[in-house]
Amino acid sequence: MRVPAEERRGQLIAATVELMRREGVQAVTVRAIAKEAHAPLATAHYCFNSKDEIMEAAAEAWLKNLSLFSSDVPVDLGLRKAVEQVAEGWWRALEEEPASILAEIEMILWATRNAPASPLAAKVYPAYVTELGNIFSAAAKNSNEECLVALPVLVRSFLMIYDGAALQYLTDPTVADHRTTFFAMVNALLATTGL
After folding, report:
1. By CB distance 3.0 to 4.6 Å, which of 106, 120, 171, 187 could disulfide with 25?
2. What is the per-residue pLDDT for 13?
3. What is the distance between the alpha carbons of residues 58 and 47, in angstroms, rounded to a whole number?
4. Confidence (pLDDT) at 32
């Protein structure tokens, strides 16, 4: 049975994301993607011009899914609580799905390594800033809380803390109490911003 090209593209993108999660970015080849998607290699080459194009599409799909985790953040409880809830959700994802977080980091590094050929590198953090900025803005508006820094600065600072904590956790989850350190840093950030 013939699969329409757009549907096959979606299957190849999903296969790329799954392959990255399971085996890492280094394992991603057009042949491996086609095998993962149960698609002929020629079809993969028909749908995408190169591995880089498939990687771009997979990364774009990943970024579009950012809003899925944030739908549970209670913006009616205020900005501080929203930041704490995002921190809880992200840390839980790190502990429950370390392979997904590692694949996401690898994908970001791949895009950065391939810049300027890959425009994705310049899109990653702005996408996070937009997504978290929307959550934090709604939370601040609902509670009339004042933040001593602009919300994009709050988001970028939060991301810096999370990225560093996640990398340290992934290198050796047992070496230290990374969770306690992460939340101490988030609390320090919130105190610095007047929250």
Report:
1. 106
2. 94
3. 13
4. 96
